[in-house]
Amino acid sequence: MKPRLTGIRKDEGTMASCVVKNWQGETVGSAELSLKVARPETAAHILYLALRRQMTNARQGNAHTKTRAEVRGGGRKPWKQKGTGRARAGSIRSPLWRKGGVIFGPRKREYNLAMNRKERQLALRTALQSRVEDLIVVEDFQEQLNPPKTRAVAQALLRWGVMEDQSALLIVAERSEAVERAVRNIARVKLIGLDQINVFDLLNVDWVLITVSALEQLKARWGSDAAPAVLETPSEDAPQADIAGDQALPGDGPEDQAVPESEHEEAEQTPAQPEAQENQAALQGRPADPQGPEEQTEEPQDPAEELAQGAEPSTVEEAETAPAEEESDD
Question: How far are the Cα atoms of 37, 45, 121, 130, 259 from residue 10, in angstroms, in the given order?
Answer without folding.
Answer: 11, 12, 18, 8, 61
